[in-house]
Amino acid sequence: MPRKQIPQVALILAAAGQTASAQLGPTRDAHSVEVCLPEAHSFPGLPPYPLLQEDRLLGISSEWLVYSSTIFNPIGEVTIHTAYSFLTEEYVRTGLVPEVGVAAYSPEGNFLFEIHNAQLHTFDLRTRSLVATGIETDWRMASGPGATCLFQSKETTVDENGDGDLDDFIVYAGDLVTGTLSSSGRALNENLLASISGPYAVWLVQEAPGMDRTGDGDFDDEVYFAYDFAAQAGKHLNLAWGERISVTSDDHLAFHVSEASQGADLNGDGDQLDRVLHLLEYASRSVTNLMVEAYEPTFADGKLIYNNLDTQTMQIRNLPTGVVTDLGLPVASTARPNVSKGFLLFASPEENVDWNGDGDLLDIIPWLHELATGQTFHLGVAGGAWDVEGRDVLFARSEPDEGVDLNGDGDTTDFVWALYDIPTGHVRSLGYAAGGPGSIHGDFLALNISEGGEGRDLDGDGQLFSVIGTMPRHGAPRLRVSNGQRVGWNQTRFETIAGLGLFATGIDVVPESRIVFQLMQDCSD
Predict the structure, then answer these.
(1) pLDDT single digits (tens) 79-110
(2) CA 370, CA 379: separation in Å to the nearest integer?
(3) pTM here?
């Protein structure tokens, strides 16, 4: 039978250049397993459903891979939460409900919290038991570093916050290690915006008539509230939501405050147009105004790293000392901090110095800043860096800026994978066009490779897509690309786990040398 393209997304597990453990479809060869679901599948009490539409990784530990699959059947969307056990090599389906399902899972725990039919359930991955908690809730749920998740429950018969009505949504915390629940007794907005780290949580509350917490003369603002579940104590921060993503570490929360909603110039630039970065220390519940507008901050190695939108330079704040280091190198206004294994990786355009020595000042050059030592250096070639480990930097070198055909395809239009040796400055081309993220792990590399950039079909399917390949980190760049490892044009953003953060961009290595990434399935009849 002819091979058939099925436009759906699946998860593959890979180990040291081989794919393994994904036993949902036929094995093509010793090194490749295709993940394919039938075109129609049925469960008791539900009509057959068509193709799987999307998988989303919820969490991964040394024992479990937990992901969420959304499908569409005649009665609407259905979400299946599935856990794969690395120890027993089996799949466990946790629940199937005719609604959009929500779940939270922590790599530190064995419990999954799920919402079924507007009621919170716990699922014990070890005993395979699904238990209804009796708490009514909806689709809103949040999780973060540590083993705790947040969710909200509408008051029904008990006035939990003691305000004289039953109109409020109360914040609960779920312990993903023990499966136990605790109520804060505090209300929040209908739209849950929450961050949590261990017992510490932050969410939004709506100002009420007569309760102007920001002091701007109205009651229209959504204001941050911090709560310590262990101490059962909370604090209104009296700061208005800045409409940007907050990020959390074990000890701190970095969040934005809207000057317009606050009715104040928080960074001293003479206007009230900015969203100004603030820092909350969980234990003391003290807040520091950092007086900068920053793009997507991140925490790493006891530091807060962000792109200052006023100076368009990367800045690093030492959390224990409060000292801020400005790297003084221009970056794009949308540049996100990319931290990998103790290094900050970023790209900076040439201005007054020809860093790659090609006779012009037109190139974008990758730079590294070592967080432990404060050393900053550039690679001396044009391109963008993706990962660093030991003495090697994995980056995509720019043929247009360098004016060299690095992959031998007869043009100079590609970005080509290369390794930079930090001690010697030697650059070794890997000879394949980059199609997206890449990563280093131990003795091998995981690379997104553009077949279009290569001008050749690497996986033998007769079409030119982006594919996932692995190759040794040292020695000859022998590429292994298995059939079925194509990545769709809209799937260059892999939803994986990076550290403990969800939805990071990249191909990430997980316990026991496994790599998790998403791909377009390729199945045969």
Answers:
(1) 778 787 767 777 787 876 655 567 777 766 78
(2) 13
(3) 0.80
